[in-house]
Amino acid sequence: MYFDSLQAVLHMDGHGFYVWAAYAVTLVTLTATVIAPVLRRRRFLRQLAAQLKRAQGATAASARRIN
Amino acid sequence: MWPIFHKFGSPPWLYSISGAILRWLLPITLIALITGAIWGLLFTPAENVQGNSYRIIYIHVPAAVVALAGYYVMALAGAVSLIWRMKMADVAMKAAAPVGAAFTFIALFTGAVWGKPTWGTWWVWDARITSMLVLLFLYLGVVALYEAFDNKEAAGKACAVLSLVGMVNIPIIYKSVDWWYSLHQGASIKFTGETSIHSSMLYPLLLMIAAFYALFTCCLLLNMRAELLQREQRTQWVRKLIDKEVVN
Lengths: 67, 248
Known about the structure:
heterodimer; A: mainly alpha; rod-shaped; B: mainly alpha; 9 helices; 77% helix
C-alpha cells in the first residue's frame, strides 16, 4: 500500500477532500443510476399485477350477476 | 445476420437474454469497480507533479470515455429506429440517455474537483469542458424531449433526430485539446505510438475504463427492461411474467 496510516489515506497530503469528494459523488450518482431502473421495473410489475387482479375480480363479479 | 436482427426485434427474447446477461455481468462489474477503485486510491504511487489529487483520474477518464461511447450507442440506436422503424432501437435510445447523462455529469464533476487543486480553479470555459457540458445538455435534451411528447412515436423520431444532429459535438470533444488552447493535456494512451503513462498507473486505469463500460452496459440493459415491460404491458408474455414474478 502507498500510504502508511488511515490518517494518511484520508488526508492524502492535503488532497484528501478533493479525491474523496470526487469518489463519493461518483458512488452516489452511479448507485442512483443502477437503482432507478430496478425500482421502476419493480414498481411497474407490482402495479400491473394489482391492476390485473382488480380486472379479474370485476369480470368474476359481472359473471356472477349474469348468472 | 437476419435471424439475429429479428431476434433483437423481439421484446420477450430481449427481456430474457438481458436478464441472463445481467445476472453475471452486474456482479463482475461491481467486483471490477471495487478492485479498480481500491487499486487506484491506495496501491498506486502518487504522481510527481500533482501529488495525490491525480487519483481522480481513475474515475474521471473512464466516465468521460464512456460518456462519449454512450453517445454513439444512443445516436446509432436513434438512426436504426429512424431508418428501419425498429422499436427495440427506440427503446435502446431512450434507455441510453439518462445513463449517458449520469456519466457525463460524473466526468464534469470529478473534473471540477480535480481542477481546483491542479489548475487553481473549479471551472474554466475551456474547449473540452464546454463541449462536455454541451454533451450533458444533449443527453438531458433527449430525456426531456421524450417526455415532452404525448405521442411516443413522434417523441422517438424527434429524439433520434436530436441525437443524430448532436453527433457533430463528438469529434469536437475528441479534437478539442488539439484544435484549441486548453488546460487539458493531449491523449496519453494511444493505440499507435508510445503510451506516456507508467504501467503502475495504466493498469488500474484500464481496469476502471473496462468496468465503466460494463457498468454502462448494465444500466442500459436495466433501463431497457423497465421500458420494455411498460411498452408491452398488454401482451401475453408480460402477463405470464407477472404470474411468475409477482407472487401475491
